[in-house]
């Protein structure tokens, strides 16, 4: 699939990505690398080149990144190595040891990177696929009432699209997202949210499963993978809705979908970043499943759900605000029949 951000082949079907995953970050017999103290500055501005196999230990990659950022004046030479930024691996997966990175397998999220250094990093550091300025925000429409403006980070150079591999009881999901525009979650061996969905999705339950704040589609696609026949995923933030639809296509073989249709493009959705009335973004159909993705206010989703009983998951950003959460649950239950739970 062509990437809507850079136009290149960044996006792969789940089987193709999973087939090479076990060796993706593993060293060859000739690979070497230093283990550096991230809390201190490197002893000097030096770094080892990639191995002949094309991979390089992650600490050496960051020594290279650090050198560029010091040379560009982003960091003083007394700054610790970890000040360079946060590595977002592509694909992100559960790792048992520090990785050796192939080319274009890292997106850098940094508070201190600048336009000029970002371009140098993408051009000169083989492993860096993209560089994002960390604006210290939670990207997306985090206000459930959709009254406050949405925020996001800023891509300075390259492409910020990356995949993560999320284990579920029914097998792995491959989930793509745009890191500058969406909340970042690091894959874990077992996700409490996935476990909460799995505990409620029982064989023979024909209720419509609704992932009301779906993000990249983790919980809705988990429900489908576990055998739920009808699923609706929804998010008010355009990037989340788009990538949930993309992930429906990426995982279509595991879901047994015979067709997946995309109704709108990323650029079209970006014209209305936060939407209230639900808009169909993508739809997948198969012998066992019908899965729809919408962009819209969760409290208006009843317009497309209709009277059918549902099992809904509500994964709000600010669910610790009990007054707000109770109010949203009350408004939801006024229009939708069935059960709703917070993972």
What this model shows, in words?
The chain is built from eleven helices and 15 strands. It is of the alpha/beta class and 343 residues long. The protein has a seven-stranded mixed sheet with strand order 11-12-13-10-9-14-15. A four-stranded mixed sheet has the order 2-4-5-6. Strand 4, helix 4 (115-124) and strand 5 form a beta-alpha-beta unit. Helix 5 packs across helix 6. The protein is globular, with a radius of gyration of 21 Å.
Largest sheet: 7 strands, mixed
Shape: globular
Second-tier CATH architecture of the domain at 188-341: 3-Layer(aba) Sandwich
What's the CATH topology name of the domain at 188-341? Rossmann fold
Q: What's the end-to-end separation, in Å?
A: 32 Å
What percent of residues adopt helix (DSSP H or I)? 25-40%
Q: Walk across the major sheet and give the strand order.
A: 11-12-13-10-9-14-15
Relevant CATH superfamily of the domain at 188-341:
Vaccinia Virus protein VP39
Mean pLDDT across all amino acids: 95
Strand content: 15-25%
Low-confidence runs: none
Q: Encode the helix/strand succession as letters.
A: HHEHEEEHEEEEHEHEHHEHEEHEHE
Radius of gyration: 21 Å
Q: Briefly, what CATH class of the domain at 188-341?
A: Alpha Beta
Structure, briefly:
The chain is α/β, with parallel strands linked by helices. It has helices at 14-19, 21-24, 58-71, 115-124, 192-200, 218-225, 238-250, 252-255, 266-270, 302-305, 322-333; strands at residues 56-57, 86-89, 100-101, 106-110, 128-133, 154-158, 161-166, 173-178, 208-211, 230-235, 257-262, 279-286, 290-295, 310-313, 338-341.
């Amino acid at each position: 699939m062509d990437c809507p951000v850079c136009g290149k082949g960044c996006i792969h079907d789940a089987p193709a990505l999973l087939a090479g995953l076990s060796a993706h970050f593993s060293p060859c017999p000739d690979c070497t690398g230093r283990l550096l103290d991230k809390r201190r500055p490197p002893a000097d501005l030096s770094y080892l080149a990639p191995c002949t196999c094309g991979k390089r230990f992650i600490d050496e990659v960051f020594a290279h990144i650090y050198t560029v950022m010091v040379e560009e004046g982003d960091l003083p030479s007394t700054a610790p190595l970890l000040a360079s930024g946060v590595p977002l691996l592509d694909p992100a997966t559960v790792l048992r040891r520090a990785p050796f990175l192939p080319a274009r397998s890292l997106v850098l999220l940094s508070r201190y990177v600048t336009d000029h250094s970002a371009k140098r990093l993408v051009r000169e550091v083989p492993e860096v696929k993209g560089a994002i300025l960390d604006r210290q925000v939670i990207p997306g429409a985090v206000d459930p009432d959709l009254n406050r403006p949405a925020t996001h980070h800023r891509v300075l150079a390259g492409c910020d699209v990356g995949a993560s591999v999320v284990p579920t009881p029914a097998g792995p999901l491959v989930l793509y997202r745009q890191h500058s525009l969406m909340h970042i979650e690091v894959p874990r061996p077992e996700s409490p949210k996935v476990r909460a969905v799995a505990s409620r999705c029982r064989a023979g339950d024909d209720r419509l499963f609704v992932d009301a704040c779906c993000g990249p589609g983790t919980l809705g696609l988990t429900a489908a993978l576990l055998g739920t026949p009808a699923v609706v995923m929804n998010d008010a933030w355009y990037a989340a809705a788009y990538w949930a639809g993309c992930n429906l296509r990426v995982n279509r073989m595991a879901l047994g979908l015979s067709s997946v249709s995309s109704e709108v493009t990323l650029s079209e959705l970006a014209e209305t970043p936060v939407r209230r009335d639900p808009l169909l973004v993508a739809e997948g159909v198969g012998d066992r499943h019908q899965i729809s993705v919408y962009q819209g206010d969760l409290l208006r989703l009843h317009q497309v759900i209709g009277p059918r009983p549902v099992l809904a998951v509500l994964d709000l950003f600010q669910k610790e605000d009990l007054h707000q959460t109770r109010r949203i649950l009350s408004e939801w239950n006024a229009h939708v029949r069935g059960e709703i739970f917070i993972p």
